[in-house]
Structures are given as structure tokens and as C-alpha cells.
Amino acid sequence: MDAAFYSRSTLTEDEARADDEVYGALADATRDLADAQLRTQVDHEEARAVTAEIRALTERLRSKAREGALGTEIGPGRQVRNHGNAVMGLRNPFASTGATVRTIDEDRHVHRSFELGPLYEGPPGLVHGGVSALVLDQLLGESAAVGGGPGMTARLTIHYRRPTPLGTVGAEGWVDSTEGRKTIARGVLRDADGATTVEAEGLFVLPSWAEDHPEWQRRHDRSTFE
Amino acid sequence: MDAAFYSRSTLTEDEARADDEVYGALADATRDLADAQLRTQVDHEEARAVTAEIRALTERLRSKAREGALGTEIGPGRQVRNHGNAVMGLRNPFASTGATVRTIDEDRHVHRSFELGPLYEGPPGLVHGGVSALVLDQLLGESAAVGGGPGMTARLTIHYRRPTPLGTVGAEGWVDSTEGRKTIARGVLRDADGATTVEAEGLFVLPSWAEDHPEWQRRHDRSTFE
């Protein structure tokens, strides 16, 4: 990892919008397929037939594809394009539906709502404890950045207060304190009734190389980087 | 959550094996599609055409499907069927390739190897910090169970020592201590060179209702439950 941390997109604003619409719809369709194949009870013959067709579509998509991961690009209007992100990437079917949307309130608290359906299961009917940690890492990182102290996660502590049922899960994060390159952020998950199910605390540290990095200086928002 | 925590499968051993082969292959194909669509650079027309075909396959799978999540079933031979599990479920495309395989060494340490490719990206080229937490929660829970003290995650602390590059990630977990219904497990992630990148500590607590639950008593292996 060095200062060539991300690349600059060559897309125009219109091209970026068109790309996002087309490839975003592809990811949405793939996410729905992932859910459908998890829950399907079609017979073996039909399951095998669908499997073969999925394989054929995969080959079509692979006929022209980049080799590695998407990374993070800075697009037109300095828009951050981290579309591969595992939690909220536009092109990542593993990212929860709706996770690309966030709001920031007047206190600089970050709010997200995650749709955590059957694909996010751990104990029967419940969100996997690791999935709660996954989305909270993302949320706290963004909260640190929005609150003024971006950085990479150095430590993350999750307290599981009660089970989180599968379904709509609310999330809120905020900065607790900042000192030099270190920021402590806190956050919670809430179930559909608004009850807090999980609490988290994260320590985020700005790498020393990043202090001199113009992208970090210009854009103090860690949602770019995680 | 109550003592009706999971259900009993009615499948015979042969039926279970056949089901796992067919639906496991469907999940594998879907996982590959998810990776291919993330990295594809086919033009918009082709991407739209593939999207439409994915939608059609999804409808075929939905024509006969269970309503909710898969939960956990106890199959023939007391085999645990938690195929929906977000980290290692056989039918879950979000679960990393190969994550269904684990080994237990003579010291009762649990070892897994995760293939964390572009779909697991956080910072450019690196495993998302939340993904590290996700797989470590699963691993530590299993380690607690294998070491003798199964339970639900009560607290999870992750220390990020250095970035974890995308690719093959090794994982090892073990029991640190057990006291009554509480077990502390520890674990690490290692990069392809064997260097430790992430360390974790988890507190696992056996719910009081589970103490009387025959499945918990007979099968002291939390890999069942997470």
C-alpha cells in the first residue's frame, strides 16, 4: 500500500451515470438471484438446468473483464467510485440492498439502513454476528471520516446486546473523540422496532503516508477508503 | 429465539447428499457469476441482455421456494445443515469458496482457509476490515465450541495489525479460557506469506435456555449455530 492508493477515472459525468445504471442493475439482478437460489426448492433437474445457464452467463461476462479487484477511482466531480466495496459497493451483490444510501444529520451522525435478509443468516432467523461487525466497521469508518478524523481501522470492539432478527436493520454512527491522527467512533445497530441490538467502538488511525496525500487532505471522508 | 432453535431434516442420507451436490453447485455457479459481473467490462447492450437473463433465471428459481431463511436443520447422522450461513453455508454464494472445509489440530485449534477475492474488497486491493471481523466471528465461535465452551457471541474485539491483501487468507482459532457458561476464544488471520495481519478475541456465552437444550448438550460444537 502506497500513495498510489487509488486511480482517476477517465469517464465523463454522463458516461459515469450510464455505467452506474447498467452495471448497478446487473449487480441488483445478481443479488436477487443469490437470494432466490438460496431459498429455491425446484427439483434437481431444474436446478441443474439453471446452474448451466448461470455458468453460460458467467462466461459471457468474463469474455471481457478486468483481471483484479475494482479498487477505488475518483470520478467526475470528484465522485468516489468504490463500487467493489463489500458493504456498500454499487457493483457488489454482497453489499446489502440500499446500503449505498446514507444520511448525515445535523450532529454529523451517519445513518444507514441495511436490508439483511436470508443471505446474512447466522443463528436461525438471526443476523450473523460477523455480519453485524462487517456493517459496523464500514459505518464507524464513515462516521470517523464525516466527523473529521478519517483513518484505517486499527481496533474494532463489538458488544452483542441481544439477537438481531433478519430484516431491516438501522445503523447510526458518530465520532466520540479525536486526538491527532486517532479517532474513536461509536455506533449501534437497531432492529425493526428501534431497539438497540449491537453496540460498537472503533479506533481509526490515519496512516502517516496519508497525511501528505492530496486526496486525503482534500477529501476528509473515509467512506472513500473502506 | 427459544428452544425450538432448529428443526429436524426429514431427508435420508442419500437424499441429503444429492441435495447438497445439486444446490451446492448452484451456489458455486452463482458465486462465480457474482465475481464475473463485478469485474466485467462488456458493453452496455450485452450487460443489459445478461441482466434480463439473470432476472428470468431468478423467476424460475422463485417459482418454487421457501419463504424465509434456511435456518439450521439436523440431518441424517446428526449432520448439521446450516447451509444458509453467511460465512460457510453450502448454499450461500456470499460464503467464501472453500469455507466449508476446516481442520482441527491436536491442540483443538481450528484452521480454515478463506478465498477472499475482489468481492471482499475494502480499501483498494485489500480485504475489507469488516470482512476480517466477519470471518473471525465465525472462526472464534467454532473454536469456542470445539474447545468445549459453545455459546453466542457476546463481545468481539478485532486488532488490525497490518493490511490483509485480497487472496488466500489463513485463519486459526483456539480457546483461551472457559469459566462456567463463558468462554474466551482467540484467533488470527494470516496473509499468503503467513504473516499475521489481524488478531481477535471473542467472549462467547451459552444462553441459559440452551443449557437445558438436548441439542446443545449432545453436540458441543457451535459451528452448528453461527
Would you spell out the secondary-structure blueprint of this structure?
The structure is a homodimer of 226-residue chains.
Chain A: E1 7-8, H1 13-39, H2 44-62, E2 73-74, E3 80-81, E4 103-104, E5 110-116, H3 129-146, E6 152-160, E7 167-179, E8 182-190, E9 196-205, H4 208-211, H5 214-218
Parallel strand pairs in A: 1-2
Antiparallel strand pairs in A: 2-3, 4-5, 5-7, 6-9, 7-8, 8-9
| Helical content band of chain A | 25-40%
Stated plainly, the CATH topology of the largest domain in chain A is called: Thiol Ester Dehydrase, Chain A
The gross shape of chain A turns out to be globular
Q: Greatest interface and its residue counts? A: A-B, 89 and 89 residues
Structural class of chain A: alpha+beta
Rg of chain A over CA atoms, rounded to whole Å, is: 19 Å
| N- to C-terminal distance of chain A | 14 Å
Write the CATH architecture name of the largest domain in chain A. Roll
CATH superfamily assignment of the largest domain in chain A?
A: Hotdog Thioesterase
- How would you write the strand order of the largest sheet of chain A? 4-5-7-8-9-6
Tell me the β content of chain A. Answer: 15-25%
* Tally of alpha and pi helices of chain A: 5
* pLDDT < 50 stretches of chain A: 218-226
Order of helices and strands of chain A: EHHEEEEHEEEEHH
